[in-house]
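Hey team,

Filing this mostly as a record. A colleague (T.K.) asked me to run one chain through the structure pipeline before their review meeting, and I want the input and output archived in the tracker in case anyone asks later how it was produced. No errors, nothing strange. Just documentation.

Input sequence:
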Amino acid sequence: MNPDGLPDRADLVRELRHLRRGGLPALQALVPEGLRAVTLHAGYAEGEDDLADGAERLIRTAAERLGPDDLIGRAVQCTFGLLPGHRGDPAADRRRAAALVYGVSDERFRHSQEKQVVEQLAGAVLAEAREPAVPARRPVVPGARRPQAASSQPARVPRTGLHGRAGSRPVTVHISPIELLRDIDILVSSENVHLEMSKSFRPTVSGALRRSAVVGSVTEGPVTDVLANELAAWVRARPGVLPLRPGTVVPTDPGALAERGVRRIYHAALAVPDGRAYRVDPQHIATAVVGCFARARQERADVLPGLRSICFPLMGAGRGGLDRRTSAEWLRWAIEDALTGDPDWSVHVVTRYPEAARLFDAEPPDG
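Output structure:
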């Protein structure tokens, strides 16, 4: 132990490596000595009664310090089962998910990146404990309200800012990663005009959906990259179709996302290669929205009765180069127009950024 009562970083790394194998539920049986000291020092627990829950809260907060859009931060979430619905996953499944973040095999991850991931989490845990403002934020006072664990549910902000000629059209804006949404029939992904999805470790909508739709695991096998495989099969069946006209929409099954109540993934081909980058014409966002509603109506009539809800991301606002305001404005206009002609849909928009969600607030038109 150090003079401040906190463990050495190397000792905490050893404890976290052991915890990685057992998973967070193992804390209910035993909180290791170093982590116990950090949890009490940082004010995440008042004593033995809430020590296990406090240690888990501390680990979750430390992981948030690393950033959900950072490779290491995302790998930490996968490694320790911090993502909603994965807390109790077997160690092999958690390692495989973390390996997918880096796009490497499980064995390569185990021998290489995993060490760095655990070390970075240990550093973040100690930083959280040593931050001067922590005692003031989390006072250890008998009867004081204890810090609550971060919610596993994405923030859901109802908006009613879409106004068409037929009156107000509601849209629900989710401040959340798209892969954490539940019970929405259709999730829309923005792709390039060659239908090449992002790598699963990229912090993009396409990469997140691709990663989350994978079926199978190390323990259950075989592993199937559902979305990318279906898009490749669609292209093979249509020789010479590439590049697609911007705004073209191609549907696939949801893969493992079906467990979250998703029925279809619609891939909107928008991004046109431009040297080493991409460009998106904002007018093609409107084309894609029209295509998504048309495809949904067709599938509802032909093969998937009951389709009713659809969720759009801010298309083109990532690697497509558009700023969020431009993407949001074109998306709003296109959804408003679509709902004016076909109001029988529950429409959702998803973004990680609260300031982008506010772009969907609007006043009704005069008169």
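Quick notes for T.K.: Residues 133-153, 156-167, 363-367 have pLDDT under 50 and may be disordered. The longest helix spans residues 283-302.
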